[in-house]
Amino acid sequence: MAIIVTLLPTTHWQNHVTVVETTGQQTPLCSHSAWWGFTSAADQQRLEALTKRGIRTGLCSPDIPTLTEMTESTDDALFQRIMYSPYHVIHHLLPARRELVYNIRQRHHDR
After folding, report:
1. How open is the CA angle 32-47-61, to the nearest 5 degrees?
2. Is the model's pTM score more than 0.70?
3. For residue 54, which of 21, 59, 69, 93 is within the disulfide window of CB 3.0 to 4.6 Å?
């Protein structure tokens, strides 16, 4: 991921903040599942530090989630779409659902 920061005149500062948030936060998410698992802990810390630096300098809003949180939520959402949509391309690769049957004995005080 390459990040280019340019200095813009102060009249365009708000537009610059929007560009940084869009470029720095949204673009990596389209392929983050493919590369996030292959990054080392040091690489992940450097990426998190980049986000924190953006917050500290005012380029990003302080309420944005961390890259780890975004990765986990995106992975969860993808898995939910795969699991609950029978028309998803890779839904057929999931194992068949098991029906759990509990044979609990009747008790005299079950009323």
Report:
1. 95
2. no
3. 59
